[in-house]
Design a protein that fits this description.
Number of strands: 20
Strand content: 15-25%
Low-confidence stretches: 530-536
Mean pLDDT: 78
Shape: rod-shaped
Distance between the termini: 46 Å
Radius of gyration: 63 Å
Structural class: alpha+beta
Length: 581
């Protein structure tokens, strides 16, 4: 069962198409998933590196700009004026140029006197931090100092940039110029904000103090008024690596990428949550798997459609071929396609028509041949039969039995007239039976007291058409092969009746019967030896004639228990005409 199923052409086409295409889809899916994963990871790393470098570049440019501007302001003579209001006005104008980049700009001389923007705050807040900056700058060889982030009473959480003003003769700074940075504005203006939800930007100072306070990895100590790093091992950033992995306090894996190319050692880091990245990759893989599944379903549909598209007309063709092989030559295929399968259907229809025409021509040829053979048989009356009949007439004439002579001559003349003058193939049953009676009369003169003939025919059968020479050869066989070999009086009975749409005629004798082996082959082939009797026409020829005229359902059948007589049954249609014109 399974072998025959897999031998089916539609299943083969479907299987080959589906397996090959789906295998290709699966292979492409696996390769594309690997490629997409690699490309996504590479693009993410490239994106992070690019964003990191941009941010570091912006910070570096900002640092250079603010140092340059502070050095420029430090050379302004108004800062050495004895009028505080003039100094304040100059500082306010410079601060305005930076917009939101700085919170305060101020000046401090060697005596600890401070003049700057936010005048009221400077009067309230103690200047201890500024004094420390002054002392730190005097002890440094650098002309510029960037402080660590701290809480200023004037500028809140800030980083201060300090530059020396021209020195006095003792080598110490006569004064300093300082700017408190607005870290929030710095974040807004100079940090690259093209980050997704997967990354978090963190900027720390040289001393690893947080400068970007809006990172989720920066905490605030309200009591100590300070910001600190939290959520991951802060000590891990003290290494010299440009990229490394750690786990945060929640167990998430972080990929940290660092850049530190700015002037004052600030470190810009991007904290990439790899679990989010993996979820994105998982989503992309699931999406590609969904596309692959859709492609497989499409492949399934296309394979089924192609197999059905190709094999459906082939199945139709096979069905019609089976009808033709069963003898139905009226069948035709409805052709609605113009492709090769459509051309095959057209060729099949032409072939069926041609075969039908050839078979009809062959049938006509066979009928004409049988008709010709019948005409020939009508001229092949056995000379021995005529000799014996004429000899019998001469014998009766010498004895003076004129009535018997007249009867024999009359029956012989009528018999010759029926067989020689009437050349039509079908005659009424009554005429065929009359020919049999005349033949039996002549045979009774020749073989007196050997047999008798009895007929039991219904009145509704007299006009039924029957092929000429159907009954007489059967009766002749009964006489010569059944009754005469018996050596005593025998009987022959002809019975006929209409059964539905058929006529059944039986010719029975009580002769010696037919041996079983001979009976099996009697209707299959013509006898090799010449027939004895009126003419050469055996049971095989009668049987083939009836089948040719009416089809396989008609013809002769033989029942002959050996030693108990023989019954020949003739079956023909009730209409009496041939089925092949």
């Amino acid at each position: 069962m399974m072998r025959s199923l897999f031998a089916s052409l539609p299943l083969k086409m479907f299987g080959i198409g589906f397996i090959s295409i789906s295998s290709l889809i699966l292979l492409l899916g696996l390769v594309s998933q690997q490629y997409i994963s690699q490309q996504f990871t590479s693009q993410q790393q490239s994106y992070v590196t690019h964003a990191l470098n941009r941010t570091d570049y912006f910070l570096n440019q900002f640092m250079k700009s603010i140092q340059k501007d502070l050095h420029f302001i430090a050379g302004d003579d108004r800062l050495r004026s004895s009028d505080p209001d003039e100094m304040m006005e100059a500082l306010d104008r410079y601060k305005l140029q930076w917009n939101e980049d700085i919170k305060n700009l101020y000046y401090m001389d060697g005596n600890g006197h401070v003049v700057g923007t936010s005048r009221l705050l400077w009067e309230i807040a103690p200047p201890e931090q500024i004094s420390r900056l002054y002392r730190h700058l005097n002890s440094s060889d650098s002309s510029v100092v960037w402080t660590e982030p701290y809480f200023s009473p004037v500028s809140d959480y800030t980083v201060t940039v300090v530059v020396k003003l021209p020195t006095a003769e003792d080598g110490k700074a006569a004064a300093i110029l300082a700017a408190d940075l607005n870290l929030d504005a710095l974040w807004t203006s100079y940090v690259d904000h093209e980050y997704s939800s997967r990354e978090s930007l963190l900027i720390v100072s040289r001393g690893y103090q947080p400068i970007s306070i809006h990172s989720p990895y920066v905490g605030y100590d309200a009591f100590g008024k300070s910001y600190y790093l939290r959520g991951f091992p802060a000590v891990s950033i003290e290494n010299n690596l440009s990229s490394w992995r750690v786990k945060d306090d929640d167990g998430r894996r972080l990929l940290i990428t660092r850049a530190s190319g700015n002037l004052w050692g600030w470190q810009v880091m991007i904290m990439l949550d790899e679990s989010v990245l993996e979820r994105s990759l998982s989503f992309m893989k699931a999406f590609s798997a969904l596309i692959g599944l859709a492609a497989l379903l499409l492949c399934l549909f296309v394979s089924y459609y192609l197999a059905r598209y190709v094999t459906r007309p082939l199945k139709q063709l096979i069905g019609q071929m089976k009808k033709v092989s069963a003898g139905d030559f009226q069948t035709q295929i409805a052709v609605a396609r113009q492709d090769e399968l459509g051309m095959l259907g057209i060729a099949f229809n032409r072939m069926v028509v041609k075969v039908k025409q050839l078979m009809e021509a062959n049938v006509r040829t066979e009928i004409e041949k049988k008709h010709y053979e019948l005409k020939v048989l009508q001229t092949q009356i056995q000379p021995h039969f005529l000799y014996n009949t004429l000899n019998s007439i001469s014998y009766l004439a010498r004895r003076g039995e004129t009535k018997e002579v007249d009867a024999m001559i009359t029956n012989l003349s009528a018999l010759l007239h029926f067989h020689l003058d009437k050349v039509q193939e079908f005659v009424p049953f009554s005429e065929e039976l009359d020919g049999v009676n005349r033949y039996v009369f002549l045979m009774n003169i020749r073989y007196p007291g050997q047999f008798i003939l009895d007929c039991d025919i219904g009145e509704d059968m007299t006009e039924v058409l029957i092929p000429k020479f159907t009954l007489q050869p059967v009766v002749e066989n009964a006489i010569f092969h059944g009754i005469l070999p018996k050596g005593e009086l025998g009987s022959i009975v002809i019975a006929g009746e209409r059964i539905g749409e058929r006529i059944m005629i039986q010719v029975s004798d009580d002769g010696v019967g037919i041996p079983t082996e001979k009976r099996k082959t009697l209707l299959l082939s013509a006898p090799a030896a010449p027939m004895t009797g009126y003419y050469h026409l055996g049971l095989h020829s009668i049987h083939e004639r009836l089948r040719l005229y009416y089809g396989d359902g008609c013809g002769l059948s033989i029942s002959s228990p050996e030693g108990e007589g023989t019954t020949i049954t003739i079956v023909i249609p009730a209409e009496g005409g041939p089925s092949h014109g």
